[in-house]
Design goal:
332 residues, alpha/beta, seven-stranded mixed β-sheet, six-stranded parallel β-sheet, 15 strands, globular
């Protein structure tokens, strides 16, 4: 079978990979779509050239953890699935076929399309961050960085009923897209009146919670100055650089909470209020998609054949990348 491999810096190739049938608690899936996770995969293919020396990656390396497809085989102890079932899958990779533990797949309702379902795992990162923000009616929320995770965060904040959702990004097209997805305001962080505009929107209070998705140290310090007393800053972006914070003035005195929202910083076995397991979040997302209360089609910018992987990742390496990108494994 074929799969995408990061063979060297800036270089992705479609290569031959091994395939296998499932063991007793596994399922084998024919991938239909796999979603590109821009932040993670750029770090991998560039050997994290923008990060510090303590966080570097080698080659060959592999990615692709959010996908969808159809089950072809099941292990003898698998009861929930059968061949032909449509599923979303975690950790399948960018490849034609993948054999995973049955716990990594969730069956899809008939009205949830496979291209949307391929983004379920990635979107679940944003949902976990929004849960940690503990948004209430009347809250003002700020999303900084309108890539894939930031735009998903806007969608989930809208579902939570935030009073004002402020989206911030340098890119005017992404700001426009955020407003179409539910943001009430869209600002450019380079605006010299940026903080003043946020204070005006929030009646001088500042925002109750920030979803910080850039991973940029400068963005974090700017966020802290826009946050209300006793507010929360949720760190969804991966800051792979050393960061300087004036903790006394910007965190300690105003009582601001800094909360890590890395994909691994969540409950593993059982959901609890504000901290659901990854797969429980995925089930929630699928249910909202099925009921028509979520729509991911506006996220999908491009769909590529796997044979185009080198060009796709060359653009990603140069930071010339659209929002939601899928590989279509029907095109092998």
């Amino acid at each position: 079978m074929k799969g995408i491999v990061f063979v060297s810096k800036y270089n992705a190739e479609l290569c031959e990979m091994s395939d296998r049938l499932p063991e007793e608690n596994e399922v084998r899936i024919a991938l239909k779509y796999s979603a590109v996770s821009a932040g993670t995969e750029r770090a991998l293919i560039t050997a994290n050239e923008d990060g510090d020396e303590t966080c570097k990656f080698g080659f060959p390396s592999y990615s692709g953890y959010s996908g969808s497809g159809i089950i072809t085989h099941v292990g003898k102890k698998v009861k929930e699935f059968k061949p032909g079932d449509r599923v979303m899958v975690h950790g399948a990779g960018h490849k034609q076929f993948s054999t995973v533990d049955e716990k990594e797949a969730i069956k899809l309702p008939d009205n949830v399309e496979l291209d949307e379902a391929a983004f379920t795992i990635i979107s679940g990162f944003s949902l976990a961050a929004v849960r940690k923000a503990k948004v209430e009616l009347g809250h003002n929320c700020l999303v900084v960085g309108l890539g894939l995770l930031g735009l998903f965060a806007v969608k989930f904040l809208k579902l939570c009923g935030a009073l004002n959702i402020i989206a911030a990004d340098f890119n005017p097209e992404r700001r426009d897209l955020a407003k179409k997805m539910g943001a009430d305001y869209a600002l450019d962080p380079r605006d010299e009146n940026y903080k003043e505009k946020i204070m005006e929107i929030t009646s001088g209070k500042g925002v109750d919670s920030v979803i910080e998705v850039t991973g940029n140290p400068n963005a974090l310090t700017q966020c802290l100055k826009c946050t209300a007393r006793f507010g929360k800053v949720i760190l969804l972006g991966c800051t792979r650089q050393l960061t300087q914070v004036d903790f006394y003035h910007d965190v300690h005195c105003p009582g601001i909470e800094l909360i890590g929202a890395h994909s691994g910083a969540r409950n593993r076995l059982e959901s609890s209020p504000g901290n659901w397991t990854e797969m429980d979040d995925c089930r929630t997302i699928i249910s909202y998609l099925s009921k028509g209360k979520l729509d991911f089609h506006d996220i999908i910018s491009e769909v590529h054949a796997p044979s185009e992987a080198h060009n796709v990742y060359e653009r990603l390496s140069k930071n010339q990348f659209p929002i939601g990108v899928l590989f279509d494994w029907n095109e092998i």
